[in-house]
Amino acid sequence: MKLIIDTDPGVDDAFAIALAALSDDVDLLGVTTVFGNVPLSATTRNAQRLLALCKRTDVPIAAGAQRPLVHPQPHRARYAHGADGLSGRAGTLPEPARDLEPTGAVGLLATLLAAADEPVTLVPIGPLTNIATLLAAHSELREKIARVVIMGGALAGGNTTAAAEFNIWSDPEAAHRVLAGGEVPCVLVPMDLTYRCAVDEEWLRGLAESGPLGAALHGLTPDYVEYYRHALGWPGLVLHDAVAMAEAVRPGILRTEAYPVEVDCGFGPGRGATLADQRRPELRERVDGERAAVEVEVAVDTDLDELRAFVLDRIAGGGVR
């Protein structure tokens, strides 16, 4: 499977990157970065260090959007990820082993897609600014995209606001373009499901004891675990982005349902909310008439034990079974 990651590392991004980079059945074509959990300079440096940790110097990386498409991002997510995005421990990772591509994120995305001999899966696990820009600037490449597997959104209340999840809230206009535009097949992995996939201290011990790479990833988690001690009410960790990556790497590990999805781009308390129309299609047609609705595959369930074991096995070096 050919795959490109768009990311804003972030502790959960670190797990997601490792999951893809260490999977023998994934052809990781490239990594692009975006503002989000911390500023672009930090997310880019973190992504470079993580690829070096995974010994993937073959993977090109490019820096992307420094800010949302239209309106400034009100604040970062340092409260969860620490000042450098990795619990203040980015310096424990290897130094970057490869320079950035000079074309920038959208340029690299376009180049990789154009050169691909089969459709590519895009996995944006941060704000969707780079992906929206790609779709706007390179409509000729849509057929080269197999699907876009997105970590973002929440159907029953957010984490950054009462209504909105962080990635979508960070650039609602970009998210609306990607999710409601109907240009490429999308899978949305919302916070409702990723919270249910949270891992416990035993899982984290297994990671720490799996070897040097697992120990290095475990070492990035203290601030993140402390945040989720309050968010969950028990000592654990939510691997949001790794859940989406699991679906990208093993299609079907998450169960999805097709819904029209829009994003609230207003300026009230609902800004950044993902609005999934869960009415029966027959009712939508009766009420809304023949207006065609763009549907997104929304992840709603999974075998929780299987999902957790899959992520740990791949990161711990199990590879393909």
UniProtKB/TrEMBL annotation:
SUPFAM superfamilies in alphabetical order: Nucleoside hydrolase
Highest taxon in the source lineage: Bacteria
GO annotations of cellular component type: cytosol
Molecular function terms, GO-annotated: purine nucleosidase activity
Pfam short name (any one): IU_nuc_hydro
Keyword tags: Glycosidase, Hydrolase
UniProt domain Inosine/uridine-preferring nucleoside hydrolase: residue ranges: 3-305
Biological process, per Gene Ontology: purine nucleoside catabolic process
The protein's name in its UniProt record: Pyrimidine-specific ribonucleoside hydrolase
